[in-house]
UniProtKB/TrEMBL annotation:
Transmembrane segments: none annotated. NCBIfam families: PRK03202.1 (NF002872). Its cofactor is Mg(2+). It is found in: Cytoplasm. This is 6-phosphofructokinase. It catalyses: beta-D-fructose 6-phosphate + ATP = beta-D-fructose 1,6-bisphosphate + ADP + H(+). Coiled coil: none annotated. It comes from Autumnicola patrickiae.
Length: 319
């Protein structure tokens, strides 16, 4: 391997720069050139390549976002787009690729492998924590910390006014951010996509709510649930509640990565390069039980379901 192309794709997540730093450092030590591809697959299609040095990335290790920028590319879904991407990789003498992104990014690589035989390695980077083959995706821990910090603040005002507050957190169709941030802020109810439209325990509780205290609901975004729906359900059973909605939104995606995400980024980045040096291809580098773990792209699945233990906690604390 002489020249590794690096890119970030899909939603940015804190820790992506740390992973790039890990990759760049170990690549340089092994005499391998690294080339940044800007804006994910879009940059590959447009030929937006530039050489990277670990010294540039050292300055970014503590920063959220991604130095390489990112995008969700529709053109890469077409064969014309993928052929153009291949042409630019060949012109730039890229002989291996490391991608940091979510399941869509890895599915893209799997499809790309039909026409491109250079080795690909994936690093799971998404705040949603919704990928199998790793206990944590890069950015999840930072996003949860941001959510907690903000929910703590909301609790101060909620308690001062004895209000019902519904806080909507991100996660797409995964409830990990909601469970972690809801449990650790003492929420009265936590609603996650995995539970479907099961509002019963929330409604039972809020029916008798007498405005003598705050009532905090943490709800995950999603087609099935979301803050507005929860609000209308609450008002059906208790029309007089003083209720406010806060959607934390993209604030959860930004900010300096937590210690855990910085270390995870560096560990996964270093392992990605080592895997290439050991002739591995088309695998995602993850972490299971604090051990580095490789999962072939074709076995990796999008994981919506929070695990059994977390479900039990949800039931326990929902009572
Ligand atoms: O996948 C990460 C994520 O932040 C989800 O939690 C959220 O649903 C989505 O991306 C938002 O996407 P966009 O930044 O395109 O609005």
């Amino acid at each position: 391997i002489k020249n590794i192309g690096l890119f970030t794709s899909g939603g940015d997540s804190p820790g992506m720069n740390a992973a790039l730093y890990g990759i760049a450092k170990v690549a340089e030590i092994n005499g391998i050139k690294i080339t940044g591809i800007l804006k994910g697959y879009e940059g590959m299609i447009n030929g937006d390549f530039s050489p990277l040095k670990s010294s540039d990335l050292k300055k970014m290790v503590h920063r959220g976002g991604t130095l390489l920028k990112t995008a969700r590319s529709k053109r890469f879904l077409t064969i014309e787009g993928r052929k153009l991407a291949l042409k630019h990789l060949q012109e730039n003498n890229i002989d291996a690729l490391i991608a940091i992104g979510g399941d869509g990014t890895f599915k893209g690589l799997l499809t790309f492998s039909e026409i491109c035989d250079i080795p690909f390695i994936g690093i799971p980077g998404t705040i949603d924590n919704d990928i199998s083959g790793t206990d944590y995706t890069l950015g999840f821990d930072s996003a949860v910390n941001t959510a907690i910090e903000n929910i703590d603040k909301i609790k101060d005002t909620a308690e001062s006014h004895n209000r019902v507050f519904i806080v909507e957190v991100m996660g797409r169709d995964s409830g990990y951010i909601a469970i972690h941030s809801g449990l650790t802020t003492g929420a009265d109810a936590i609603l996650i996509p995995e539970s479907g439209k099961d509002f019963i325990y929330l409604l039972d509780k809020v029916k008798n709510y007498d405005s003598e205290d705050a009532f905090l609901v943490v709800v995950s975004e999603g087609d099935e649930i979301g803050a507005e729906l929860v609000s209308s359900k609450i008002k059906e059973v208790n029309p007089n509640v003083d209720l406010r909605i806060t959607k934390l939104g993209h604030v959860q995606r930004g900010g300096n990565p937590s210690a855990l995400d910085r270390m995870l980024g560096i560990r996964l980045g270093v392992e990605a390069v080592k895997s290439l040096l050991q002739s591995k291809k088309n695998v995602m580098v993850g972490i299971l039980n604090n051990q580095l773990h490789l999962t072939p792209f074709n076995e990796m699945v999008k994981q919506h379901q929070v695990n059994k233990e977390l479900h039990e906690l949800l039931e326990l604390f929902g009572k």
